[in-house]
């Protein structure tokens, strides 16, 4: 491929090598490091003049260092007269938002007209944690990026933060390939979304494999504010009106919508950090009589504690892609398989470079 350059940041050099091999090119050498004062140092060691440069840099781990390094690489390529700069970030930095939090309990006092002092406690004020997603996208654009490729955004709305073109790609083809080759009797399996946010993703895989679907509905936030069983029953009746079957078994306010009795289960989630969602879901599925539980996570940002939690869970096998540089604990864990995502990213790069459709790649089998 002529007039193309691939520069891999320090966040995941192995993935960069795999993508370069898929494309049949050599990665453009770059010296990446830090000065003695710990500021980031970037040197592009081969000319990128007139070339379409693809810069691979992902998140997790040292996210702040990775972001600054990415910005400096983009600027170096811009100053080096690159024709076009595309950022390939399998896991976009700061793309995982945090939820609204309530700050404890506030003790208040008031004085009545007769002089009586009444003390009472109220729930504290609500506050939003900082959400730097828009800031990060603005920085990437300001540095000189013309185009961005991201994989399975946790929040699809983040695509709208950019003013430059964004191609969101999906690990779905390699996940389907993994299921076909590694899940025994997958034709009889039930695809499960461990929360409502992943329904669309799990349902898409379910449809392509012609499998049945189930959902775990988390009702903990609403039941925490209800004191009577009557309210809980009415909530479940509301859920049942849109579901064919809701189990009588619940764990921490989570209910299974669907039937997994004597069937293998395939859970699909986009990101794993603490592991609590998968473990709670697996315990609920086990109580509802499933045979084996296979969990597939796209971005495996698991910590040491979460790996121990998953190892002691009812999950039979866990798989995650190499969208980020995985820790030794994940790689050496016998319960975890690694799915190679370089073919998806490499094919996306090839198609965008040649001006071909990216969406069309999901309508055909890349592995035949």
Automatic annotation (TrEMBL):
- Please name the GO terms that the record assigns under molecular function: ATP binding; kinase activity; magnesium ion binding; ribose phosphate diphosphokinase activity
Which Gene Ontology CC terms are recorded?
cytoplasm; ribose phosphate diphosphokinase complex
Domain annotation Ribose-phosphate pyrophosphokinase N-terminal: ranges: 5-95
Question: What keywords sit in the KW lines?
Answer: ATP-binding, Kinase, Magnesium, Metal-binding, Nucleotide biosynthesis, Nucleotide-binding, Transferase
Q: Which residues cross the membrane?
A: none
Catalytic reaction annotation: D-ribose 5-phosphate + ATP = 5-phospho-alpha-D-ribose 1-diphosphate + AMP + H(+)
Would you say which domain of life the source belongs to? Eukaryota
Q: Name one Pfam family in it.
A: Pribosyl_synth
Query: GO biological process: any one?
Result: purine nucleotide biosynthetic process
Question: What does the record give as EC number?
Answer: 2.7.6.1
Q: InterPro entries from the xrefs?
A: Pribosyltran_N, PRTase-like, PRTase_dom, Rib-P_diPkinase
Among Gene3D superfamilies, the record links this protein to: 3.40.50.2020
Q: Which family does it belong to?
A: Belongs to the ribose-phosphate pyrophosphokinase family.
Protein name (Swiss-Prot/TrEMBL): ribose-phosphate diphosphokinase
């Amino acid at each position: 491929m002529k007039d193309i350059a691939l520069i891999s940041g320090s966040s995941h050099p192995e993935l960069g090598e795999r993508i370069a091999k898929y494309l049949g090119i050599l990665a453009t050498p770059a010296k990446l490091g830090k000065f003695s004062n710990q500021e980031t140092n970037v040197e592009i060691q081969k000319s990128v003049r007139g070339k379409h440069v693809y810069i691979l840099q992902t998140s997790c781990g040292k996210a702040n260092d990775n972001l600054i390094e990415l910005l400096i690489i983009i600027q170096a390529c811009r100053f080096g007269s690159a024709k076009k700069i595309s950022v390939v970030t399998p896991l976009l930095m700061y793309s995982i938002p945090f939820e609204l939090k309530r700050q404890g309990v506030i003790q208040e006092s008031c004085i009545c007209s007769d002089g009586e002092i009444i003390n009472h406690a109220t729930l504290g004020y609500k506050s939003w944690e900082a959400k730097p997603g828009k800031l990060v996208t603005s920085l990437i654009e300001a540095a000189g990026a013309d185009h961005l490729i991201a994989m399975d955004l946790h929040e699809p709305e983040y695509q709208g933060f950019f003013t430059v073109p964004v191609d969101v790609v999906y690990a779905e083809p390699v996940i389907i390939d993994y299921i076909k080759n590694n899940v025994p009797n997958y034709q009889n399996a039930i695809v499960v979304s461990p929360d409502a946010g992943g329904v669309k993703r799990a349902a898409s895989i379910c449809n392509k494999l012609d499998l049945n679907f189930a959902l775990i509905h988390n009702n903990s936030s609403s039941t925490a504010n209800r004191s009577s069983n009557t309210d809980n029953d009415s909530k479940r009746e509301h859920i049942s009106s849109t579901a064919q079957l809701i189990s009588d078994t619940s764990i921490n306010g989570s209910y299974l919508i669907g039937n997994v009795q004597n069937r293998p289960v395939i859970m699909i989630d986009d990101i794993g950090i603490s592991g609590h969602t998968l473990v709670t879901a697996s315990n609920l599925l086990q109580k509802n009589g499933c045979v084996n539980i296979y969990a597939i996570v796209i971005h495996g940002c698991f910590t040491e504690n979460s790996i121990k939690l998953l190892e002691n869970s009812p999950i039979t096998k866990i798989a995650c892609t190499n969208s980020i540089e995985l820790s030794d604990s994940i790689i050496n864990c016998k319960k975890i398989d690694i799915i190679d995502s370089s073919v998806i990213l490499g094919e996306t790069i090839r198609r965008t470079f040649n001006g071909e459709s990216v969406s069309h790649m999901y309508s055909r089998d890349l592995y035949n």
